[in-house]
Write a structure and sequence with these properties.
Length: about 140
């Protein structure tokens, strides 16, 4: 599968929803530590970030602290090519808000939004979307 040309980096909390989605994708992936103070993995190739959302009712705190710590490293941020965000539709306008925040701050596309651990339809759409996306990307760092 050509989607493997790019790498996935993901954060998953104790609920494991994002981890289950990534596992179903079956693509090469690196999991970020759950603690913002843990050492951050060194990423050396372009990647798409998959992250859940933790916003309050106003949208504050949408991006998990370990994701912020990871993206605060310029080397990691330079290799970020896109973001896929999870959330819970019960939260209305803040559904998958972390993806919007990261996309805007890092100037990358928000590629997809999924609810909780995703559905089989989400898995198929993400795989197909990544295949198309990586087919259009230059994988050499700018």
């Amino acid at each position: 599968m050509s989607a493997a040309r790019g790498h996935l980096v993901y954060f998953s909390s104790g609920s494991g929803n994002t981890s289950r989605l990534v596992e179903k994708l079956g693509l090469p992936a690196t999991r970020l530590p759950m603690s913002a103070t843990a050492s951050v993995p060194e990423i050396t190739a372009p990647f798409v970030l998959i992250t859940p959302t933790y916003a309050d009712g106003e949208g504050r705190g949408a991006v998990a602290k370990p994701v912020i710590a990871f993206l605060n490293r310029v080397e990691n941020r330079a290799l970020l090519r896109g973001v896929i965000a999870g959330g819970n539709r019960n939260f209305g306008a803040t559904f998958a808000r972390a993806g919007e925040v990261i996309a805007a701050k890092c100037n990358v596309p928000l590629l997809y939004r999924f609810e909780l651990a995703g559905t089989e339809t989400d898995i198929a759409r993400i795989r197909a979307g990544l295949d198309t996306f990586w087919g259009t990307q230059c994988l050499t760092p700018a």
